[in-house]
Amino acid sequence: MNDRSSRRTFKQRQKEACLAVLVEAAETVIYREGYHQAHMQQIAREAGCAAGTLYLYFKSKEELYQAMVTRHTEAITDQLRVAMATKRDPVEQLKAKTVSLLDYFNRHRAYFRVSFTEAPGGRADIKSNLRDRALKAYLEFKKHELATIKRAQKQGLLRTDLPAEELVEFVHGTTASTLARWSAQTSPPRPAAQLRYLWGFLQAGLGIRNEKESGTRNGKGNGHR
Predict the structure, then answer these.
(1) Residue 224: pLDDT above 70?
(2) Measured at the alpha carbon of residue 129, what is the angle toward residues 72 and 203, in degrees to the nearest 5?
(3) Architecture of domain 1-59 in CATH?
(4) Whole-number Å distance between alpha carbons of 57 and 47
(5) Does 189 score more than 50 pLDDT?
């Protein structure tokens, strides 16, 4: 690597570090003040820089918000893919994804509260708040999850009276509404209870019987035909 490319790499890393600080500051201020009450000067103070420096990287609060959403969306989808890859059984992959998502939710509750309650327009619909890279990451993961559901149906592990496309919408809708409710609560359920509730909802809706009752891991199916 020559000196010129080394300098470019250093500058790029320096820029990425600066962007991370600014986005984290925006998340802190928006969570504390609310999206509509937060302003760029507050975010600059939180980041420890002049407002002019902030505007060099982001032209508006909306740009900062979208950068925050993109960072989290890419991190979430990457984490969920890794979690699903640790399992071979498609139902276990779906459960591992739920466990991993709840882990991320509990480590980043401030972001989820901002996303669900303070987003521009105040919508709790995930897709409506995504743009560009964030939307691409979300749709690619949703496609991956759809393939997992189809594989589970083919193996007789999920209900087959509804198309996989409807089941994946059910999963995302139920998960989003549940996390939106918990993110707004001062004292949401403990992690173990969260998993029991959310996976219980999903398990029932997807037609997954208790393993002891159905013997699904032995390929006997779940009776939804």
Answers:
(1) no
(2) 75
(3) Orthogonal Bundle (1.10)
(4) 13
(5) yes
Q: Show the tokens assigned to 114.
A: 């901002």
Contact, 86 vs 92, CB < 8 A? no
178, 184 Cβ separation under 8 angstroms: no
Cα(217)–Cα(157) distance, rounded to whole angstroms? 8
Question: What is the predicted pLDDT for the residue at 7?
Answer: 60
Quote the pLDDT of residue 13.
Answer: 85
Q: What sign has the CA pseudo-torsion 152, 70, 102, 198?
A: negative
Give residue for tokens 């893919």: 81
What is the distance between the alpha carbons of residues 148 and 76, in angstroms, rounded to a whole number? Answer: 18
CA distance 123 to 59: 23
Domain boundaries in the chain? Answer: 1-59, 60-218
d(CA 218, CA 120): 48
Among the ranges given (14-18, 55-59, 83-87, 170-174), the one the predictor scored with the smallest mean pLDDT: 14-18
Is pTM beyond 0.90? Reply is: no
Structure tokens at 191: 């992690």
Q: Are 23 and 64 in contact (CB under 8 A)?
A: yes
CA end-to-end span of the chain, whole Å?
A: 61
Distance, in Å, from the CA atom of 26 to the CA atom of 42, rounded to the nearest integer, reads 9
Per-residue pLDDT at 125: 54
Fold of 60-218: Tetracycline Repressor; domain 2 (1.10.357)
> What is the per-residue pLDDT for 117?
77
